Every structure is written in C-alpha cells, then in structure tokens.
Fold these 2 entries.
Entry 1:
Amino acid sequence: MKHTFKQLSTLLALLLMVCMVSSEVIAQQSLADVKKKRGLTDDDVLSAVKTFMPRGGRDEYFAFVGSGNSGTMVVYGLPSMRIYKYVGVFSPEPWQGYGFDDESTLMLKKGTNDNLLPGYGDMRFPALSETGGKYDGKYLFYTDGGNSRIALLGLDDFETKQVLMHPFFVSTFPGVAVTPNTEYVIHTSQFPTPWNEKIASVDNDYESTFKSGITMWKFHDSEDAAGTGHHIGRLIKEESFTVELPPFTLDYFDAGRAASNGLVVGLASFKNNHYVYVFDYQKAAKLKTTKLNDMALVSTQDLVDAGAFALIPIAAPARSVKTDPTGNFFITAADEAQVFDFAKTKAALDQKQFGQAVLGIPTLNTEAVQYGKLALGQKVMDIAFDYRKNVAYASAFNDKKIVRWNYKDLKIESELALSFRPGHLMTPQGNSAEPHSNYLTVTDKEGLYDKHINIGPTRPSYQHLIDISSDEMRDIYTMSIPQSNLYGSVSVLRTTIKPIIRYPLGTNTRTGEISRYRTVAGQEKIEREGNRVHVFGTLIRSHITPEIVEVEEGDVVTFHLTNLERAEDETHGFTVSTYGIHGSFEPGKTASLTFKANRAGVFPYYCTEFCSALHLEMEGILLVRPKGYKPSPEEAKEAALTPQELEQYKKNYEDKIKVINETQEVINSVVAYLKENKYEKYPYVEALVVDAFDQLEQAKTSKANYERYAAEGKWRDAFLWAEQYWQYQVKTADVGLRAKKLLSELINK
Ligand SMILES: [Cu+2]
C-alpha cells in the first residue's frame, strides 16, 4: 500500500524516458502567429496584457463577491480576475470542513434560534470594516436574506467567525453596511411580517401587526490574547438595538460618513409609493428601550418624537441609494438619478420640517433636500464612485450601457456601449471615503448576449472588468463564476489586508482561542469513558498519529486533531472512509470531528489535502469491533516478522541512514551560506530560516526513536522512524534552499 520514495522516482524516470522518445522538435509560435491563428485584434491583445498576471506578480486588489444563493463567498483578484478562494459563510462547505468540524458546526448552530444548521444562504451586498471611513482590511460582513442571519468574517485568515440569526426579523434585506468606524453593523428587514411568530391576517391586521425594522448591531474590535495581532472582534447582541417601523418593504441602504456620520439612508416602499428613508441612529441610541427576544427595541413613536426617522418621497422606484465618498450627498440609482444634500436633509430632520405622515412616519419635502437630478438611461441598476471628484458610474440595464457622469455638475461625461445587460457595479475601495479607480466591475445579469458557451439550461454568472483609467472606457475581461447568482461586490487594496501564514499551535480558529484539545507531538492519546472515545491526535508530514484507533460499535468518537506544521500552506485534510466526516487543518489549527461509529468494520482514515509527494502515507485505521466482540489471544498478539523480512527492514534502514547523511550535508552547506551572508538582516529570509529550523526541531523525537529502535534491533520501527526523520529533513532543505535563493537575489540586487 505504501510507496517508497525510490519506487516513485523510478516511475518518474520511466515516464520521462517515454516522453523523450516520442517527442519531436516543434518551434514556438510568434505573437503574430497566435493572433492570426486565433483571429485576435490588437485591442484583444492589449486587453489580455492589461489583465495578465506575470509569475510572481501580485494583484493590486482583493475583491469579494457573495455567491448570491449558495451561501459561500468568492475571493478574487483585480485586475487578473483570478478566483483565489471560496469561503463557507452561511452554508456548510466541505473543503474547509465548515459545518463539518465541531467548532464551525457549533458556531453555525449557535447562530440560529432553534439550534438547527441551515444549509443555504442568500448573500448579495457585503461590507468591509472601516476606520475613519476608510477600509481597514480587518473584517467583512454579510447578511443572509433567506434565513435572516448576519455573518462576520475575519480577513486575517479569510474565515467566518460569527453567524447570528436575527432574534425576530423573519425576512432581512440581503445587504449590510457599517458606520465609519465600524461601531455598528446595520441589518434591516426586507418584507414586512409580524414579529415573534405571531399569526396575522394580511387583509385585516396588516398595518397594525406587520412590521419592518432596522437593527444596529454593536461591533467590538479586539486582538487575541496571544499577542499575534490576530483580530477577534465580535458582534454583541446585548449592546445592539432595533428600531420598530410600520410595514415598509425595505431595500438597499448605506451609512453616512464624515459630516453625515450618524445617519443611515435607505429605500422603503409601501403600496406602490416609494421613499428614501433617513435614520439618525445616534439619536435613536439615546432613546429608552424595551426587550424583544433579548434585543433592545425602540418604539416607532419614540423614534418619530425624537426626530430620528423620516421619509423622502420619490416619484419612481430606485434600485439603490449610496453615500458619495465625501459624505455630502446620497444618490439614488434610478432612471432619473436623484442627488440629495445630506446637510439639508439633516437640518430638515433636526428641525422637524415635516409634511404629511405615512403610516405615522413624517415626510420631508423632496425638493427642499434635493441637490439635483439627472436622467441616465433606462432601468438604471446601480451606481459606483470614482477617485475623480464628483464622478460616478451608472449601469443602464435596458440600454446596455455604462454612463460616467458628474453628480455635482449634473452632466453626463461619457458612455460605454456593452454587449450585455449590466447589473451591479464595483470600483476598488468604492464604498469608502477613498475610492480608487482604473477598474470598474459590472455583473452581467443574464449571460445571454455574449454567445457564451452553452453548458445546459443554467449558465454561470459573469462579471466584466472595465478599464476606466482613460476618457475612453473599455470592457477588457469577462470572468465566469459558477455556483452563483452575482450581485454586489467590494474590493480593497491588497496590501491593506495582512493575512497570517500559521496559527499559534492549537488554535480553535473560530474563537481565536487556544483549544483545550490542543495536542503536541508525543502527547497523542486515546481516552475512553463508557461509550465516549476521545482521540487526541496530530498531523504532520507524513503521519497521522495515532495510526490505529480501536472502538466498539455504537461508540461516539471524536478525533481532536492538531496540525503541527509551521510551514507555509501545509494544510492537511482528514476523513474517515464512508463516515461522511471531513476536516481541514491549516498549520497550527486544532479542530474536532465527532461521529457515532455505528457500523462495524475496518475504516481507513487519511489526509485529503495533497501535502507532499508522500501525502498518501498519511493514513491510519479505525477498527470498529462488532458489539460484544472479544479478540482471541492469537489475534491480540502482533504479527511477528520473519527473519527475511527483518533483514530487509534492516537493509532499508541502513539505506535510509545514508540518504539522511547526504541530505544533512546539503543542509549544512545551506546553513553555512546563510550565516556567512547574514541572513538575519533580511526579515523574509529570516522567517524562512526560522521555518526551516522549526522543521528540524520537530524531527528530534523521530531521530531519538529510530536510534532507540535500531539499538534494540527492531528494524521495522527503526526504518519507519528514519523515514519520518528524513521527511522533516527534506522540508528543512527545501525551505533552506528557497531562503538561500532569495538571499542571493537580495545580495546581488
Ligand atoms: Cu497531509
């Protein structure tokens, strides 16, 4: 079952020979050849060059888009539009064990009101955390329109850290916004319903019983106790509040910033009448509250009396409303976009210059608070902002065009005709006080017009990259994202996010705390109490320890596993065959997998993430004995080796020791080079060297073991431990050589 390295090398050598024999010389095509053959124009090639990512190149921006309805977030780069990661948020995601390991399952279950595990989420408009109105790269928030949930993701490790179901909203708008210092995360209802599981008649009780509301979730940022700078902020229900509103259908909303900090604007409608609502949450936060399902609640009457909420009537429905980068204006995405003046609006609200009330909510005079308006096109879906002063973009769905316009001068500057019907827009850093530009992404809401490949009745979602760096805008790239129904996205300068490489050893990544199940090398054990079995195991190339676990049919088994690796991207996966469990263990992570061993038999467990050429060596056996089974004395004895087998293991061991000595020479020469050239002066090289020696440190136990077994003449065990030691050595040499290469490049710069 186990391949030796020698067998693998022989196989590779054979394959190479076969390839060499059958190949003939074919010259590389020139750029002109390729253009001709594929029918590409100069413009096509220019577009390709603009998004091409040279090896070692780095995207300028990270972008995040929700899958719309599979509950997963997609991380991609701008301008390459390469997808980097899928992150489970509202639904289980097996690759990273999300909703499979005990830690993330507990987090998801705690986030519901009935301890169930929803397998679905509808996520559309994310928000990045802000400090002083600017993206700080620490957190990202999402809401789930399908199950009234809100989620917090950490951008240190791109993992979901908290999911909470709203204590009484039955339907929530699948979008979220933050206040300029992320003091609050804003979550609103969407379709009006009675609260607290009441039944009411839509005909008779609608206006009195159906409700809408806005929740201000209090957010606290903090760093982990271990001092690694890992951010472990949380939403705090006990410090949050909701304002109760009449039965409006609520839609897109945004928070004010700078001079308009303290206000929230959003879209509301009732019986075919449309409004922009203005909400002063700072006034609302000072009002008296009652409790509903442990959430503080402000009554509609108190809110109105305090001048903290009003409606601005608008003639036609809008599809979005956004605060401009300066915080001076809020602008509707509508066929005729309306630009509103925040200062005038705030003054009118403060002075209660109210017109006729709607469902008890006062209105403001639209003309009095409006700065101006401009017709942009038909079925305008969204707007986005530029770093150029007062410049915005609009997507006109029916007109198949992007409009660049100036919202201060109220003039259209230019247009880009598209081959598709555009939906939601995004500029990098676009929903912050400092939008960047050069790029605009546009979702293709239909995927019909570009002659996309037919892959059956459901097509992927498409997002286009538009180059907006010059006066002439250009559509330069189309990315397809499967398993998604795309809406809004957000994007932040890549260097604003500081992702970690490894966790402090034994971290429960969902809480940021050191797990009480953390297990270090040599401390692996199996504990049993009645029918409850706890396996405290470790993962490191290329072993899962323990290698054999015996339980009885019906036992409840938990594998608490710790990945001991300190190396970059050395994640191990774990599954027990046919038991449907799966975990992902990033370097340093501890997670637990619990299942009932309800079928007798032999079940291999193994590492499911390719972690080295010997990754399949990471395996073990779960023996589930039939209930009441007693092994015979013969079976209980370990099978003895024949003298020939013992001799063979001895030889294998001696061969391995030779290889170990040769590898050590390589390491010694690398170490000499690194020391001579003062590697410690270069932080990244130093980090690699630390990584390398960390590997060797881990190896000490293996060396002690093989020397002991060899001294005792137990050649099989001696060989296996020598093999393990060599694994560490190879990794050390590998990292060491990378450090050497980097150092020589830095020196010769
Ligand atoms: Cu592995």
Note: The first strand starts at residue 61 and ends at 66.
Entry 2:
Amino acid sequence: MMITFLLNDRLIQTALSPSTTVLDFVRYEADLRGTKIGCREGDCGACTVLVGTLKDDNMEYMSVTSCLTPIANVYGKHVVTVEGLNLDHLNKVQQAIVNHSGTQCGFCTPGFVVSLCGYAITSGKNPTYSEAISSIDGNICRCTGYKSIERAALEITSELCQKDPAHPMEWLVSKGFLPEYFLTVRERLSSIPKIADISGKIPVGGGTDLYVQKFDDVQNIDLKYLFDRSGLRSVHVENDLCTISSSSTVTDMMTSESLQRAIPNWLDSMKLVSSTPIRNIATVAGNLANASPIGDLTIILLAMNAQITLANENGMIRKVFLKDFYKGYKKMDMQDDEIIIEITFDLPEKNTWFNFEKVCKRQYLDIATVNTAIGMTMNHDIIISAHCSAGGVSPVPLYLRKTSSVLSGQKLSVELIRRAAEILATEIAPISDVRGSSEYKRLLLRQLFYSHFINMFPFMFELKELI
Ligand SMILES: Cc1cc2nc3c(=O)[nH]c(=O)nc-3n(C[C@H](O)[C@H](O)[C@H](O)COP(=O)(O)OP(=O)(O)OC[C@H]3O[C@@H](n4cnc5c(N)ncnc54)[C@H](O)[C@@H]3O)c2cc1C
Ligand code: FES
Ligand code: FES
C-alpha cells in the first residue's frame, strides 16, 4: 500500500512499510538531514517536525517527535522539516535565534526552530511568552544555555502580537515566518484520496510507548493503526457524562474546555505529562493499555472511577471499570482481538473535589516516581464517595480500594485522613529501583496523600495538622 503525504513542498508516495518512522523517512529516503537524531526516545526534541492536518477546511499544525511517529500516522498530512521552513534568507524565528546568540554547536537548533515556528502558526490573538516557552518544552540544548533561546522566544512573541487574526497564514508568509508554499497546502491536501484503515494485529496509537519499548521489532510487527481511525478522536460531554474516544491525545484532553471547567488545575495537571510534541500524539488508550504502573492519565482516570469500553473484531462491545482492568504487571482484562474504543466517567459536579499529584526527578518531561489522584464527592463536611489511586507503589496502576472505602460516608477530619493514610500504607508494595527506595516511595505517597487534602481544602487543613 502507498502512504501519501506532503513533505515540505513535495508530494510523497511511498511503498515503504507504514511502520517506518517519519524520522527515518525524512533523513534516509528524502535525504533531508536537518532533522537530527538525538535519543530516538522522544526525550531530546532534535527530531521535531511539524505535522499539519486538514480539518473542516482549515489547517491545524502541531509539533511531533518524528522518531516515534510511523509514516502511517501522517497519511494525507503536511510534514514540515526545518528545510521546509527555509526562505532565501533566515526566517523570523531563525533570525531571532541569531539575534540573541541562541545557538552554539547547532545540533538542537533545527528542533528549536521547528517548535518555535509551530508556536508562530498556532498562536492565537494574544500570544504570550509563556506559550512560547511551553512550545519548546520538549527541546533540549546541551551547550547554549536556555536564556538566549528564551530571549529569542520573547522577540518572536512580540512580533506575533501584530498577527492578522483574519488572515494568519498570509500574515506569517508576508512577515517572513513561513515560505509562500504554505498558502497552497490546504488545497493540495484536499486532493489526496482517503484510504481504508490499515488493519493489523497489534494496536498502535501515537507510538510514543510502542516505538520506545519495541523499536527493533516494530518493522516486523503487523500494526493496527488507530491514531487516525474515524470515530476514535473526540472529547465529548453530554448530560455530565464525559466520553473520551480512545485515540484522543493528551493535548485533546488538556485543551477540552469542559474538562478545564469541571476539574480544578486541569491544565497544570496535564502539563506534567511529558512534553508538547509527545502530548500532541500520545493517546489516552495508549496510556491505559501500556499498563505502566505510573501512567499519569491512568492514575487520573482511576480517581474518576472511569469505565473503559472494549470492542473486538466482530464488533462485540463490553465495558469494564478501569479499577478492575489491571490483573498483574502488564496484564489486563483485554483479549488479543480487542481494542479500547472509549473511556467514560461522570464529570465532577460542583460538590466533587479532585486533585492530582506527581513527583519526578525533574518537574517536566519525566515520568513519575510516585503519582496519585483523588476524587471526592461531598455533602458539606461528609464525604459521600471517594476514589483514590496511586502509581509507582505496586506492579499495577493502583486503585486504593480500602483507602477509598474508609473515607466514604465519613465526616472529613484530620483524624480520618490520618486513619486513611495508615490504611493506604497497607495497600501498597513499592519496590526499590532507580527512581527511589521503597521506603522513600512509601513516605512520598503518604505526603502526597496529605497534599490532596491541603490542596482541595486549603482553609480547612494546615500542613502541620497533618504531619
Ligand atoms: C519522552 C516521553 C515522555 C513521556 N512522559 C510521560 C508522562 O509524563 N506520563 C505518562 O503517563 N506517560 C508518559 N510517556 C509514555 C507515553 O507517552 C504515554 O503512555 C502515552 O499515552 C502512550 O500513548 P501512545 O498512543 O503513544 O501509545 P502507543 O505507543 O501507540 O501504544 C502503547 C500501548 O498501548 C496499546 N494500544 C494503543 N492503543 C490501543 C487501543 N486503542 N486499544 C488497545 N491497546 C492499545 C499498544 O498496542 C501498546 O501496547 C512518555 C513517553 C515518552 C516517549
Ligand atoms: S531523537 Fe530525541 S526526541 Fe526524537
Ligand atoms: S546548540 Fe549545541 S546542543 Fe544546543
């Protein structure tokens, strides 16, 4: 089968395996060596490219790590490498980096240029410096020092404040942010015919887990590509029931206005998950089905008491509570021919409190040492129901059954929280590993459990009352 997409200004049709990474295609088939290979694990951002998708007659661009993206996932889309951003002189982003001495060896620079051009395209009416910095949260530079790159980001932001909201793409072209061919992309993509779903045995969403864990095998695995499968990509609320289709990305969840309205600190919690280019492709089903004991979305959804819907090849559908899904280390209540199609949970009501805590070795772009979430529905000071979860303290992402049950139906008090923390200690079995000793993880989870209450009820509890 032929995978068709636009690579910069050029139409590509390739018979290479759909599992080939965009990175390998770009460097070794198209011979565009500006896109660099640093880690091949999504950690460094040297391989960042933009992917533009035609949606409702508009182009939507996002940055992605090309080392983890199969070419099947860019079918019918616009892939932009640093070469595709070049003009016959430096573009505005490149010039800003030069103006502020934001490059030394230059290895990371194409990645930064691509991410900042992505920010230039996606920035709205009032672009902010903090949005510019967030756009490069997946890019690492080992030699320049970030201050000069940050100053370049500031210069770009002040230019973008002038952007014409009625004709953003034309403005970006006229001001030298982007080459002119960007204005033809929408039309060119609309003429690429749709293809049937590429079916195989092993499901793959964004690939951010599979391509890291099984990179050497991935060429030989018969993959079932779900990222663009129709009907699997929406975050939808009806009658206070939230339904997240399985290929929705972390970014889709993060930017959902319904979730932002219903869940306090939703944006801040989501920003703790990986980095912008990973969040743009990492799917919720991938997070649940990789069964990592520290998956952030898994821990959050356990505390929402979420249900998942599975479908097999014959269209048989069944539902299972997420808290009953994990049977042992990387073992799930899911048959080989089943896939997750959606996740549902009751949107927190006004009297429901929610909190997520995550501690890692560094604040951003790191997986958790320990993470935990809690959802509690209250009637004044009585806890009607509680759902509490913890990661990094057991072979599975753990729903804390006893702790949740001891809280439910009780009056909220310091004594109750202390008692619940004691019960919690009996439910976990952390192991010592590179992320910390078992004693440390125990202590950490207890403190994070206390943090839930301090954050949810700041006027009720002082830290010293709890510890
Ligand atoms: C640099 C980096 C940083 C990361 N940081 C974090 C982090 O901070 N927090 C965190 O939680 N995770 C993190 N991750 C892990 C990963 O990004 C997430 O778990 C992500 O949600 C996986 O989604 P995916 O679509 O990329 O999964 P994929 O790699 O596509 O798939 C993962 C697994 O799920 C299966 N699968 C995929 N879709 C389905 C489906 N619909 N039904 C059944 N099975 C399915 C696949 O077969 C595979 O076994 C990070 C990864 C990287 C590379
Ligand atoms: S090569 Fe490091 S993120 Fe892709
Ligand atoms: S300039 Fe050398 S790694 Fe960034």
Note: The mean pLDDT is 95.
